[in-house]
Design brief:
Oligomer: single chain
Structural class: alpha/beta
Strand content: 15-25%
Shape: globular
Number of strands: 8
Order of helices and strands: EEHEHHEHHEHEHEHEHHHH
Length: about 240
């Protein structure tokens, strides 16, 4: 597997189709495999959080979630990624490919959202629902135990900044074949949030439309600017 590195973090040089193929092999392999969809905010946070660095380095697959990562890989390594592999694209692609064979545990979002996401996914793709749990909990041990007892093929974790470290911290005890941090995908699957217009997706401006349309996301801009500054500084250091 070809893997590049940007600002101390790995990025696998895969597109959506290859990512799905890789995860398919993980589903047939022993152990729990972690998948991180890397975005600029994760990169910025990781500069001061060694645990985030360890999580990425020890993950079996790290994809480029967003044009910022694709751009940084090109600028810092000269490698050309086939494209983005976002959680919003990867999740339905997995459902479409593996459908009824998948036992999926939905973890995260507000109470009721995971249930709606699970029911909609079951109705559309025929997946099996192994379990559901909202993201509003403090004691992680009972949740980990529930997931371990369910033994899902696929664990989808939509808990924002907590999700990837939750998976990494409990990886040995989760009992899932593949665990992916998917951000707001459960909200989309549930129908609570709609994806932006397909044109914005094709123009790779989905992130900008989402931030502009949701004042709760405006606080993300400083990190995005910091990411650009970090990449520029790394370019300068290596020139």
């Amino acid at each position: 597997m070809r893997r590049a590195e940007i600002l101390g973090l790995p990025v696998d040089l895969v597109g959506l189709e290859e990512a799905v193929e890789r995860i398919g092999k993980m589903l047939d392999s022993p152990g729990t495999h972690q998948v991180i969809t890397l975005n600029p905010e994760y990169v910025v946070r990781a500069q001061s959080d060694p645990e985030l660095v360890r999580a990425a380095r020890q993950s079996e697959l790290v994809t480029a979630d967003g044009v910022g990562i694709v751009w940084a890989v090109r600028r810092l390594t000269g490698e050309q990624l086939p494209g983005r592999v976002t959680g919003a694209d990867l999740t339905p692609a997995l459902f479409e490919r593996f459908g009824p064979r998948l036992r999926v545990f939905f973890l995260g979002a507000k109470p009721g959202v995971a249930e709606k996401a699970a029911e909609n996914a079951r109705a559309r793709w025929g997946i099996q629902v192994a379990g559901v749990q909202d993201g509003y909990f403090k004691d992680e041990a009972p949740v980990v135990e529930r997931i371990a007892q369910a033994r899902p093929d696929l664990l989808l974790v939509g808990m924002g900044e907590r999700q990837d470290l939750f998976i990494h911290r409990h990886k040995a005890r989760l009992g899932a074949k593949v665990a992916i941090g998917v951000g707001g995908v459960l909200d989309v699957l549930s129908g609570e949030v709609k994806r932006v217009h397909p044109l914005a997706q094709r123009l790779k401006l989905e992130w900008l439309v989402r931030i502009a349309g949701d004042h709760k996301r405006w606080g993300r801009f400083p990190r995005l600017l910091q990411f650009v500054r970090l990449v520029r500084a790394a370019e300068k250091a290596h020139s």
